[in-house]
Amino acid sequence: MTHLWFRDPVSAAMIAVLVLLPFLWSPSARAQDSNIVFEDGFESGDLSAWDNVATDRYTVTDDPARVRSGGFAMEGVIEGDGWGEVNKWFLPGLDQLYFRFYVMFEQGFMNLRGDGNGMHFASVAGNRIDNQWSSHGQAGIVPNGTDFFVTTVDPNHSYDDPTLEPFMFYSYFPDMNCCYGNVFTQTEPAVPIRSGAWHEVIVYVDAGTPGVADGSQSLWIDGELKIQVENMRWRDTDDLRLNEVAFVNYMPGTPQVQHIWIDDVSVTTGFPGTEIQPGPFVDVSATHQFATEITWLADSGITTGCSTGGFCPNDPVTRDQMASFLARALGLPASSTDWFGDDAGSVHEPNINSLADAGVTLGCGGASYCPAELVERDQMASFLVRALGLPASSADWFTDDDNNAHEPNINSLADSAITQGCAVTGRFCPDDPVTRGQMAAFLYRAFAT
After folding, report:
1. Structure confidence by residue, pLDDT tens digits, 227-236
2. Residue 434 above 80 pLDDT?
3. Under a CB-based contact definition with an 8 Å cutoff, are residues 89 and 136 in contact?
4. What domains sit in the chain, N to C, each tagged with a CATH number?
């Protein structure tokens, strides 16, 4: 098997010099005529539509749990120190294309190669029209404008860290910095990869005018345009065109046998549209980490969103907002008492008073509620335990809340399976602020399940 260009580490210096230009347009500005060049939903039950297949690495599965639509999907296995590709060429090639596919990484996927770097996953390549392999075997080579160019969609990674991070571009082009692929990351907040769930990926590459820096590349994840890089010079000759897509799954030295599933692949010259259906808020896609929980929150009348018209899932929760979340979730009656002196004029004051009537809050001391202060995770535990009337716990679930006044309530919350702690095993991160998305998840577990 002839392998591709990018078997190499990415230095921090390379990443630091790259600037992701702000994106200026949206899918709606692109033509909706798909103009299909190639598509495969794998309903033939085999991989005969592809030109080159590493049969020891790629097969077709009919397991319903691994199929997005129809009866079949492609399964890629990653194991050992080898690699293998599945490639499709369309010679002589195109000047621009969209490459759309759906991918699911198996639960517990570890993005780690034996050399400490992350995997290379899916690529769009520009080969010479007289040599479909010209982009292959080019690791560490800066394109000269007449030989090749390529971009891949890879999960981002930190050295020697197996965490499956959001997708990025890893690109070879004539004006790149030094020898190895240059990295372009998503605008924040990045769309996370959720193992065990399907993600829609759309890549757009415009090869531009030969010799002119007017090309571009764009990446949509789950219906959101997350990377757009303009003013790129991909080529200096018309003999170099976009004419190959591939799934590479390059991860020699993988720490375990791992699987990826691909379905509903297409290459088009017009924007293919997105099949991801929006939720109740424009900033929460259907595959957002907390999409289910936030949608439930809206459907239950517990939230109407934030001031931008979205939900602002990454914003921290303030104490006055927390009062309204809980008062609505509990269906508390209005209060005739003005409990605190520092919430006058707040739109949340009625809910703060209702929460105090119910004994869910005692304020922050001195007849004050501190409405604008952020809710920390330990405070959130006490709010929820009082709201739900949870029993005391005899377990000590976490190692980082010793001597914390909220520790008994943190343990009660863990007993009830409303929390499993934070990202570090065995820890609760009691001093971290709670985001609105996380709050939606806590409320969903507390009240909907």
Report:
1. 999 999 999 9
2. yes
3. no
4. 12-268 (2.60.120.200), 291-448 (no CATH)
- Alpha-carbon gap, residue 309 to 304, rounded angstroms: 9
Could you report the per-residue pLDDT of 6-48, keeping only the tens digit for each?
434 333 333 333 333 333 333 333 334 459 999 999 999 999 9
Tell me the whole-structure pTM to 2 decimals.
Answer: 0.62
Of 122, 199, 109, 187, give the one whose Cα is nearest residue 154.
122
HSE, side-chain direction, 13 A CA sphere, residue 140 = 3
> How many residues are given for the chain?
449
Please report, rounded to a whole number, the percentage of residues in the chain having pLDDT higher than 70: 91
Q: Name beta bridge partners: 217.
A: 205, 229
Q: List all residues 6 or more positions away from 237 whose beta carbon is below 8 Å from its beta carbon.
A: 145, 146, 210, 211
Cα radius of gyration (the chain): 25
CA dihedral 9, 202, 437, 277 (to 10 degrees): -160
Q: How far is CA 314 from CA 67, 220, 283, 434, 440, in A?
A: 31, 20, 10, 9, 11
